[in-house]
Specification:
The protein has 532 residues and is α/β, with parallel strands linked by helices. It contains 13 helices and 27 strands. α9 links the parallel β20 and β21.
Length: 532
């Protein structure tokens, strides 16, 4: 509790209102209680703070006044220590003026009054040609007076309102109606009301960002009717677990090219299939969800999804224009999911990082195997797959498969669907590809050119070496050779494979595995470090 103030004015806040701490627009919360607190004089406002950094859960001295979102997110505050926010025009003036505030010793803004009507008019006149404005974390809570915005910033095309106090959709509608040229709007970190009313038709809005606004898919279905031209929709961090269209699949969004559903709680791929008939969708961002398995839907699955939807007499091919699918940070751990990505007709940009299947340290497969299994990928985990990297990856992959399965055709076909295609494409006939061989590549026990580079601090500076080694050389044997090559006395080396396009080198810790077993190819680089 803050110190009592006997001069407190009557309460001016209402339950459900968004507020911020005076002097700190970034400390935002929701009013949960207004009234007396037993044992303290005057009026108090109970606030549930967004950042969870407060005193209690809404109960004090054994009496409950409100229920906060967590055990320490609630507190009682005097009304004069809270702000209900400012209008959009006031925020523009604050943004534009270097004299509008100073920072106190505690690094908080202390407002300074503008002086003179002419000074304000001069600032307003400069807004007419403004096409983009960022008003993030200004404590903005309302559009302001009618027609105030359109007369001041008539040409505004991009508006960032991140981290403010907006909550009513009718206020968003008022702002958009007064900005006829507005094409991009960011409302992230504004806790929006679940009652979607007062949102007009926004014919020019192309990009809408609703990250961490508390929106549900039910509300998405309502606002889509106001967004006939929307091309990008961002819905990150809204705790979405399901996609609940008014019918069995998502329809409308005729111009939507990018849908961002990152950092949500979607666990079932069946939910994502409800997006498969968005005909123009090119990018689907699903990083940091809870997906364990993915697949490309067959005709029976699509028929079941479309059952009873008369408006889709002729369905399109599922995800017919999808070119970018970001799946990083999920729980995918099976090769079937990886192989299914080949069935997406236009897919070429894929992210699988931070999934068990793509982490060799957790039993997953390395980058070169992913490239070989994904026939059309051009960008993997944010890195371009060059023609050279694809060729080398596919040859290494064939070498690895043949060494592991020893020519068992049925097992190879079952576990490695692209093996025969790759083997035929590169003209590999026997058991061992010779790098840079002219004509069909023969499989034999040829020598590999391996670059050896010391990186251990205690090893000291050693020149990089290139050695010709048999493909049958084991990791244990290579460690012994490195001790000899670099004269490493009383030191046990650790070996890592440095792969093109991979952010981290791969630890080679199986001393019985050979270079051929691990798919290590010609001109590979192996790093030598010291045992920790």
């Amino acid at each position: 509790m803050q110190n009592p103030d006997s001069a407190d004015s009557p309460a001016e806040f209402r339950v459900g209102q968004r507020v911020h701490s005076v002097g700190d627009p970034r400390r935002v919360g929701t009013v949960k209680y207004v009234g007396p607190v037993q044992g303290y004089s005057g009026t108090w406002v109970g606030v549930d703070w967004d950042n969870g950094d407060a005193k209690h859960d809404g109960a004090l001295d054994g009496r409950r006044y409100f229920q906060a979102q967590s055990a320490k997110s609630g507190s009682f505050v005097r009304p004069h220590n809270l702000s209900g926010g400012i209008s959009l025009l006031q925020a523009l003036l604050l943004r534009d003026s270097n004299e509008m505030y100073v920072l106190s010793a505690s690094n908080r803004r202390v407002s300074i009054q503008l002086v003179g009507k002419e000074q304000i008019e001069d600032k307003l006149s400069r807004f007419e040609e403004l096409t983009a404005a960022s008003l993030s974390n200004f404590g903005l809570s309302s559009p302001g007076a009618p027609f105030e915005i359109c007369s001041v910033v008539p040409n505004l095309k991009e508006l960032d309102l991140t981290g403010n106090l907006l909550s009513e959709w009718k206020d968003v509608g008022t702002i958009c109606e007064q900005l006829p040229a507005l094409a991009a709007l960011n409302l992230s970190h504004n806790l929006m009301a679940h009652d979607v009313t007062g949102l007009p038709l926004l014919v020019n809005l192309r990009v809408l960002v609703l990250n961490k606004t508390g929106i549900t898919w039910k509300e998405v279905e309502i606002i889509r009717h106001s967004l006939p031209a929307i091309e990008e929709l961002h819905l990150m961090g809204n705790n979405l677990r399901s996609i609940t269209p008014t019918s069995s699949i998502v329809v409308g969004f005729d111009h939507l090219r990018l849908l961002n559903l990152e950092d949500n709680c979607i666990a079932e791929w069946d939910e994502i299939l409800k997006l498969s008939q968005l005909r123009r969708l090119e990018q689907l961002h699903l990083n940091k969800n809870h997906l364990k398995h993915i697949f490309y839907p067959d005709s029976d699955t699509i028929h079941q999804l479309l059952n009873g939807i008369e408006s889709l007499e002729k369905s399109c091919r599922p995800f017919q224009n999808l070119q970018c699918l970001l799946l990083g940070g999920n729980k995918i751990d099976d090769l079937t999911s990886v192989d299914s990505l080949n069935s997406f007709p236009m897919l070429k940009d894929i992210r699988l990082s931070e999934n068990p299947i793509a982490d060799p340290g957790r039993g997953g497969i390395p980058r070169f195997v992913l490239i070989a299994r994904l026939s059309k990928v051009e960008i993997l985990n944010g890195s371009e797959v060059s023609p050279r990297e694809r060729k080398e990856s596919e040859i290494r992959y064939v070498r690895l498969v043949m060494s592991k399965l020893h020519g068992n055709p049925e097992e190879i076909k079952r576990l490695h669907p692209r093996f025969s295609e790759i083997k035929e494409f590169h003209g590999i006939e026997d058991e061992r590809p010779l790098a840079r061989a002219a004509g069909p590549q023969k499989m034999s026990s040829g020598l590999l050119s391996i670059n050896l580079k010391c990186i251990g601090a205690s090893i000291g500076e050693k020149p990089e070496l290139t050695k010709k080694l048999p493909a049958t050389t084991t990791i244990g044997k290579l460690k012994n050779l490195c001790e000899s090559f670099f004269k490493l006395k009383s030191m046990k080396p650790r070996l890592f494979l440095q792969e093109e396009g991979s952010p981290m080198p791969i630890l080679l810790d199986d001393e019985m595995a050979s270079l051929m077993d691990l798919g290590i190819g010609n001109e590979s680089t192996i790093l030598i470090d010291e045992e920790s």
